[in-house]
Amino acid sequence: MKNRLKVLRAERDWTQADLANALAVSRQTANAIEKGKFDPSLPLAIKIARLFNLTVEEIFIVDVD
Amino acid sequence: MNEIKHNELHCSQQKTGVKHLAIWTLAWVLSTAFLRFGAEYIWDYQLAYSAIALMTHLAIGIMMILVNVKHLANLDELQRKVTMDALGITLGVGLIAGIAYEQLEDIKLITFEPEINHLIMLMAVTYIISIVFGNRKYQ
User: Residue ranges of the domains in chain B?
Assistant: First the structure.
């Protein structure tokens, strides 16, 4: 699953540590989600969406294949 | 700001959890040694003392399990996934290798009696390797 986290984070001039702090996860987890290596749970995806005032679909893009 | 404080609290809880887990694991290891060597060198296999030592050992073991469960609950979802994957692999390797190892003597492929210590060492190594690979996978 792809996502726009890196862009959204850059727009706010946040570091990965800032994002991790805001989401109450480790920096490793924030990094893995941003790189698309780890798909967050639905509650965490909603938390991310609320943090950026967007919907989950506006941040996460599901690969069709 | 509240979220940053929340995360600092979360990190601090995780550190405390790891510390408690280390303490209870060490206590369990020591109680294992105390049970084994105490019976032989201290109370000369007296039933009452052996029973007390065994009950203490089991109680400490149960505490170690409960602390481990609490520690797992304090991990974030990726950390929990890496840990649960490692535990699953370790359980599988322990079961498969343990049964195969136990049968080695029965089918005369080895001449010595299989020891549980070897299985525990294999499981410990498997767990550590699984954690390392799991963490590297998500870096």
Answer: 1-74, 75-139
